[in-house]
Amino acid sequence: MVLDRRTLAPAPRGMAARAALHSEAVRTHQADAPVGGDSEAEFLDCQVEISTTPATTLADAALELRGFRRALGEFARGADALICSAGTPYGSPRSTAVTPKERYRVIADLMGGLTQEHFVNGLHVHTEVTGAEDRIRALNALRPWLPVLLALTANSPFWRHQPSGFASWRSILLRRLSTMWCPPLFADADDYERRIDRLVATGAAIDRGSIAWAARVSDNYPTVEVRVFDAQLTTEDSLFAAALTRALVTEPPTAIALESEAIDASFWMAARAGMQARLVDPRTGEVAPATSIAEGLVRALRNSLDAHGDLEVVHARFGAIQAHGTGADIQLRALEEEGIAGLRRLFTAH
Length: 350
Known about the structure:
The two termini are 13 Å apart. A hairpin with an 8-residue loop joins strand 2 and strand 3 (49-51). The chain is mainly alpha-helical. The chain has 14 helices and eleven strands. GO terms for molecular function: ATP binding; glutamate-cysteine ligase activity.
């Protein structure tokens, strides 16, 4: 998200930022060192959506993510702006500028007054799964683990120039949409298709792409798409989320069948307290600290992480979270210690 450097409020400079990214991609391609990936318009004109090309290694994804961040940072320095990779901004704008695109106009009309507060940014991780039925099985297996993924990656503590009291205020804002948080448990691929079509038919979602559960089957790619994450403060945080997601989708740990209300209650607590939350443990059905559930998850995923070459990255980042907190904790600490100047320094550094 593009922010005004002085107020840290969203600034409608997304189209200019995307133009700068395109120019950088052309320049670096000519130098045989392409930025890679793609950038697109997002719902609000303060936002920039970036997507990496499909990658088999974290190193490949990291190269593109760092290229995007470098190019956006250069744009911001020349535009008296900041680039903030967080679930919500610190400041509030005086008005909301929707990107001039027909689909976004329709969404804004449907959302009404919610549009004025929809300053939310997320990280979506796609994992390829061959076969429609296998994708549904993977989606079902993911459901109980989604809250602890949110707890580990919460990165939106602010709203309207002050702490919101939540580690992931983005998750709370999104709760107001017609579909959000825990996806249903599906019988099979036909059941998934039938229920998606019915939701769209009600008009509560304008199309299949606007279904906003924390995880879903992609409509455009043969992937399971995990959408629970706030936009992440650093490239390393994004890689951590991607590695956990791939391991969970490909080899999900054994879990009991949790009721949707138990998962959603855990979602709320993860959004509220991050790694200090108490959640329903998918392994036992009992309430436990998020820290112990996360430790158990990392242990259970060890073989899958190791097979993909991701174990060292996950252990390093998990250790950093245990020592220094999540992105939300780091943002709050920067504000407490240095005020708004601390947040400027934090966002500029990353």
